[in-house]
Write a structure and sequence with these properties.
With about 180 residues, this protein is an all-alpha fold. It is about 75% helix and about 0% strand. It has eight helices and no strands. Helix 3 crosses helix 6, helix 4 runs antiparallel to helix 5 and helix 4 packs across helix 8. The N and C termini lie far apart (about 40 Å). About 10% of the residues are buried.
Length: about 180
């Protein structure tokens, strides 16, 4: 089977699983089912999974641009400027809880203190998930839809550039260099 046919087949299965999620009496998560298809494919045929992963990575570049363009076109900037400071406070508070959770989950790990600190920084940037799900309440015509989308946009604007900078700046300072012999 050609690479294009494999991609189309996998996309078709993914769309069918998410579409059937609401149409069957058996409750299941279409997105979790799609993940399971990927896991089974990886376990059963790693070469095909690797090839498909590379093809989907190329597809994701224009899809991500489209996703962010649609979110940007949908957001109510007046609401963002009106509620921005409150949203920023909520986002920063959530990031503190997230950092505490990362720290707690790594307490018994073999990582050094510096490596744990870097892990907390690496979880700082938020963007793709916020862009993907930020507009869902708006599309469902929920009263909070505009506010949720505004929160997603503020979260992206605050954390994506700060997180990218922090990762680039602190990686060489906090992470040990690999000397090429398999040990850090």
């Amino acid at each position: 089977m050609s690479g294009v046919a494999e991609v189309l087949l996998l996309l078709s299965v993914a769309f069918l699983l998410t579409a059937f999620e609401k149409k069957t009496p058996l409750p299941f998560s279409g997105l979790l089912a799609v993940m399971m298809v990927g896991i089974v494919l990886l376990r059963g045929n790693p070469d095909v999974a690797e090839r498909l992963s590379a093809q989907f990575a190329r597809l994701w570049i224009p899809a991500e641009i489209l996703l962010f363009a649609l979110v940007g076109a949908t957001v109510d900037l007046r609401l963002v400027f009106q509620t921005g400071p409150w949203i920023a406070a909520v986002v920063l508070g959530a990031l503190l809880f997230r950092a505490a959770g990362v720290c707690a989950s790594l307490l018994r790990s073999p990582l050094t203190r510096q490596e744990r600190g870097f892990c907390m920084l690496a979880y700082l940037p938020k963007a793709t998930v916020q862009a993907a799900i930020g507009a869902v309440p708006l599309s469902l015509d929920l009263p909070c839809g505009r506010l949720v989308l505004a929160m997603a946009v503020v979260s992206i604007v605050l954390t994506a550039p700060a997180g990218a900078w922090a990762i680039d700046f602190f990686a060489p300072r906090l992470l040990p260099r690999d000397d090429g012999r398999g040990s850090a």
